[in-house]
Design brief:
Bound molecules: nicotinamide-adenine-dinucleotide
Strand order of the largest sheet: 14-15-16-13-12-18-19
Helix content: 40-55%
Distance between the termini: 68 Å
Strand content: 15-25%
Number of strands: 22
């Protein structure tokens, strides 16, 4: 190999500068040598060409990185049939065997962490630091579920029938379709696939068209790990067509989707005819409540972290920052000062805090949120932005004097725009936090345990993080209420989405 991306320390920094200054084609050529830059679909253990090719762009530069194979409906249906055949073999393996193969997959992902992170930066735009973190986070689900595979238990019940034994088995549901978004191109796949594979399901992944390469690199490593043909598949093609085939197939028994609430509703409708077990990880509009006794500098630091990770394109991103009225100005000053330190740039540069948005459309949406707020009387402060960066970059932005009729209050912003709102009492703050169709997550910062408890009980969300920006991780049940979704991922509950309880009665004993 002419280049080596497995580096550490100062060599790492030198290489990061080196890559940032060069065309991404150099990095891709290296990844191609490593067989981690795959462009064909991966179906039933084979790399498959499609009818046509779809370009994938680098959001930081607009360059075409490569082309993915767009499969047709016949190919999707063949993949479903093959996954169904593979399911029966995979479920028959011992839990120990499945666990060992998953562990091997985990180890290969971590051995290739830096390479996978570079690939992710090129197609997604996030910073290399965040991408490395995501690869590790994604791998942690595989490690977790490799262990869970060996501990999937049923129950026995005292019998209400004389001379009978009552018990349950937990069985894998069958082929699972996993449809995933572009903001976390690795972890949104592994969080689902690891649970499904652990219990004995086979999976068909349909990654977002913006970020297929991270998914295909996972397939390459699954193959190297020895996961059998047909058990882990990655398909691509026209999203509505592929999703329709998956949702309407009788052979696909579970659907696990992460993405927007709009598309989640569509997929639920499409799956209704086949009554599929469905898990939905949808949008969020997270409140960030600063309690009256909280140190303002610390609160502002945490709010910056909760808002701007992945350029704000995170379902957990703090959307509405609620601050006691008498501390509002101090908070705004502290937040604006910290925001001013953030560097927007190419994610491969070590100095970058905020990478590009995924597309020009995402930039238009961010601008529309800001314009709407200005038109309705808000005050807007922008952070630094080098105008030469390119069309997908957006300055971190703070909006104050936010009112409930503004988009920044109502919608999942999904961009580096923060809205700060003053509140007069905690009931009002909780009510504003709940004033949304979403119910994914919330942040609470403060010390008074009674106030914290009121927030914990009062907030209509699936996850509350108190005095910590780090909301997620493999041991926790990730998921939302209201229109943020159905079901939970990670934790000991994650396997539930891919399994059924079978009850049996052995009578006449
Ligand atoms: P999206 O809903 O546009 O796309 C998600 C997936 O659905 C992609 O694979 C896409 O190809 C597919 N898709 C898009 N339109 C489709 C259609 N008409 N028919 C069938 N399939 C279609 O979402 P996105 O823009 O990729 O991701 C951003 C959204 O994901 C945000 O709303 C974010 O909150 C959500 N998200 C949620 C979580 C969570 O865990 N709750 C995590 C990450 C992202």
């Amino acid at each position: 190999q002419s280049r080596d991306l497995h580096y550490s320390g100062s060599a790492a920094n030198a290489l990061r500068h080196d890559i940032a200054g060069k065309a991404s084609s150099d990095v891709l050529a290296y990844l191609d040598d490593q067989r981690l830059f795959r462009q064909l679909a991966y179906c039933n253990g084979k790399w498959v060409n499609g009818d046509s090719d779809t370009p994938v762009l680098n959001p930081a530069t607009g360059e075409v990185l490569g082309y993915t194979a767009s499969l047709n409906a016949t190919q999707i249906n063949q993949t479903i049939d093959d996954a169904e055949a593979a399911f029966h073999l995979w479920r028959a393996e011992s839990a120990e065997t499945r666990a060992k193969l998953l562990m091997k997959w985990h180890d290969l992902i971590m051995e290739n962490q830096h390479d996978l992170a570079h690939l992710m930066v090129l197609e997604q735009g996030k910073t290399l630091r965040d991408a490395e973190g995501e690869v590790e986070y994604g791998a942690s689900f595989i490690h977790w579920f490799a262990e869970e595979a060996k501990r999937v238990y049923g129950d026995t019940m005292p019998s209400h029938i004389p001379n009978a034994h009552l018990a349950t088995l937990r069985e894998p549901i069958g082929v699972a379709a996993l449809i995933t978004p572009w903001n976390f191109p690795n972890a949104m796949i592994t969080r689902k696939a690891a649970a499904a594979l652990a219990i004995g399901c086979s999976v068909i992944v349909k990654p977002a068209e913006e970020t297929p390469f991270s998914a295909l690199a996972l397939a390459e490593l699954a193959e190297r790990a020895g996961i059998p043909a047909g058990v882990f598949n990655v398909v691509m093609g026209d999203a509505p067509m592929v999703s329709t085939q998956l949702c309407q197939s009788d052979n696909v028994k579970a659907l696990s989707f992460t993405g927007s609430t709009r598309v989640g509703r569509l997929l639920l409708e499409q799956s209704a005819q086949t009554v599929k077990k469905s898990a939905m990880e949808l949008g969020g509009n997270a409140p960030f409540i600063v309690l009256p006794d909280m140190d303002i500098q610390q609160a502002a630091r945490a709010a910056i972290d909760a808002k701007f990770q992945t350029s704000g394109q995170d379902c957990l991103a703090a959307n509405k920052i609620l601050v006691p009225r008498d501390k509002h100005q101090a908070f705004v000053d502290a937040f604006a000062a910290l925001m001013d330190e953030l560097e927007v740039g190419n994610g491969l540069l070590p100095s970058t805090d905020i990478g590009p948005l995924i597309s020009a459309r995402a930039v238009d949406k961010a601008q529309a949120i800001v314009d709407d707020a200005i038109a309705k009387g808000a005050t807007v402060m922008g952070g630094k932005l080098n105008p030469n960066l390119g069309e997908n970059f957006f300055a971190p932005t703070l909006i104050t004097k936010v009112t409930p009729d503004m988009l920044v209050y109502q919608e999942e912003n999904f961009c580096p725009v923060a809205g700060v709102i003053a509140y007069d009492n905690l009931d009002e703050a909780i009510a504003m936090g709940n004033d949304t169709e979403y119910g994914l997550s919330a942040y609470v910062y403060g010390n008074d345990i009674r106030d914290i408890w009121r927030c914990l009980r009062g907030l209509e969300v699936g996850m509350v993080s108190v005095n910590s920006v780090k909301m997620t991780g493999h041991p926790i049940p990730f998921g939302g209420v209201k229109q943020s979704g159905l079901g939970r991922e990670g934790s000991r509950y994650g396997i539930d989405e891919f399994s059924e309880i079978k009850y049996y009665c052995l009578g006449g004993l």
